[in-house]
Amino acid sequence: MGEVKTLEELVAAVQGLRGQGKTVVQCHGVFDLLHPGHIRHLQAAKRLGDALVVTVTPDRFVNKGPGRPAFPEVLRAESLAALGCVDLVAVNRWPTAVEAIALIRPDVYAKGRDYSDPSEDETGAIREEEEAVRAVGGRMHLTEEPAFSSSHLLNTHFGVCPQEARPFLRGFREAHRVEDIVARLKALSSMTALVVGDAIIDQYWYVEGLGKSPKDNIITTRHLGEESFAGGALATANHLAGLCGTVHLVTCLGRDGHEAFIRSHLRPNVTPHILHHGGPTTVKRRLVDPAFLTKLIEVAWLDETAPAPVRQELRGHLEETLRGDKAGDYALVVAADFGHGLIDRQIAELLSGFPQFLAVNAQANSANMGFNLITKYPGADYVCLDEPELRLACRDRHGRLEDLVSRMMDELRCQRLAVTLGHRGSMAYSPEGGFTRIPALSDRVVDRMGAGDAYLAVTAPCVAAGMPMEEVSFVGNAASALAVGTVGNREPVDPVALFRFIKALLA
User: Fold this and answer.
1) What pLDDT is attached to residue 299?
2) What CA–CA distance (Å, rounded) separates 182 from 423?
3) How confident is the prediction for the chain on average, in pLDDT?
4) Strand, helix or coil at 184?
5) What is the pLDDT of residue 375?
6) DSSP state of 324
7) CA 287 to chain CA centroid, nearest Å
8) Could you give the CA distance from residue 442 to residue 159 in angstroms, rounded to a whole number?
């Protein structure tokens, strides 16, 4: 039986083994559900030397979607140490084994045969690990034991996915190949996109309730901490930049010192073109109970009407960009319209008249009071709304959803439309595929803010590239599941995490 040690203790123990002239073999992985494939692999690895050490991916770096890992790092390490073929186990501190290899300096680094094709590894880690092994004088060995899928076993037997999603996923696996979906998503990296919309800085002020003041009818809270996120069109651009190789962003800020923060919180492949007005940059400060991320109250700084010179400058920039010499560079335009004054009806109609593929969300929120409707965008190629936004635009509170989608598509002359339904998933329509309903792919919600923006940003290039709407909606729900698993817009959807989550769902 092996021992679980800290990484430092394991390194010291390996040095002692090497001093005794013993050959050290290292394996590394998640080992979320220890199964016969793992055991056969570890037994084969042990036959390559005298001592087998195993490093385990820590919980925070298991990018396989909500609900993973199913077992925490301590239990995964203890399970491995219980095997007779394993001598030493430690939980790694990094996303890959590269740093651990440099510390342990194994004679042999063993991986399973499912890593025989490095191009199938989205992270590129297998190549880096092989280089790290060679750098310390070791060699990589691929075992030939039968492969099993922890993700498949967990999906089937442990209820990682919501109950209502399981029958859908069984049918979806039969009709769609995961390799094809991931390949189509990777192909989007050649696309250049333009995002136009309202910049928002989302602030979370974490507070603890102290109770009612004895002298006034107010509730007193204690300030515990705060953080700020790039929201609105900034978040849309960041999500989109995970899939598209180049993203240009056109937005508007006040001259109030927020520009440096915004530029520093955009992904490297997002190039902003920033207009300025004399009012405030839109900031939405939420007082939040950190225990359950309950939002107590919001205070907003915003100017709901961009001055005429700003709108004129925006029209000129769009005309130059989307009809000028650079027009052919853009395969996609995304209007992230939060109704805060940048995009009025005239600019919306201008965007609808450009030859590029136009994807739109016109958000209804407390700051625009339902006056920001998708009907501003006749001729949009792809429309993405939540259910209340669709019902507001149709002025119909109780009508059948499919009927409202059909009405709106006729009114807008739109060919593709998706409706996000919160915990009920999403619905999409295209003429060739009809109506498609996709259930929510996770019921583990940390924070719902920004999930719809992630859905729009990830699905827009998919629709522009001609992916079937059933696949588009599935990918959008996967992106939303990742988005609700993080606080606010703290991190944009990571493409590697998205690919791995899709593979885990369809295992």
Assistant:
1) 93
2) 25
3) 90
4) helix
5) 95
6) S
7) 25
8) 11
Distance CA 493, CA 58 (A): 20
Six-digit token pair at 444? 């583990």
Picking from 54-58, 302-306, 432-436, 471-475, which range would have the lowest pLDDT averaged per residue?
302-306
Model confidence at 118, pLDDT cuts 50, 70, 90, reads: low
Domain residue spans of the chain:
3-157, 182-505
- The residue behind tokens 């007193």 is 220
Residue 298: how many other CB atoms lie within 10 Å? 15
- Strand 219-232 vs strand 199-212: parallel, antiparallel, or unpaired? antiparallel
Q: How many Å apart are CA 112 and CA 108, to the nearest integer? A: 13
From 293, 464, 451, 440, select the one nearest 386 (Cα to Cα): 451
C-beta pairs of 395-403 under 8 Å, 24+ apart in sequence:
401/427, 402/427, 402/429, 402/435
Backbone phi, psi, residue 406, to 5°: -60, -45
Which listed CATH number (3.40.50.2300, 3.40.50.620, 3.40.640.10, 3.40.525.10) goes with 3-157?
A: 3.40.50.620
Confidence bin at 214 (pLDDT 50/70/90) = confident
Residue 330 corresponds to which amino acid? Answer: Y
Share of the chain above pLDDT 70, in %: 94
Contact 71, 32 (CB under 8 A): yes
Q: What integer pLDDT is reported at residue 61 of this predicted model?
A: 85
Domain 3-157 identical in fold to domain 182-505: no
CA distance 360 to 148: 42
pTM given for the model: 0.78
Is the sign of the CA dihedral 301, 311, 361, 460 positive or negative? negative
Residue type, 482: L
Residue type, 436: T
**Percentage with pLDDT > 90 across the chain:** 68
Question: Quick one: CATH architecture of 182-505?
Answer: 3-Layer(aba) Sandwich (3.40)
**Which residues lie across from 332 on neighbouring strands?**
193, 357
Q: Please compute the mean of the pLDDT values over residues 393-414 and round it to a whole number.
A: 95
Question: Between vectors from CA 104 to CA 98 and to CA 109, what angle results, nearest 5°?
Answer: 65
Of 239 and 166, more confident: 239
The pLDDT assigned to 158 comes to 45
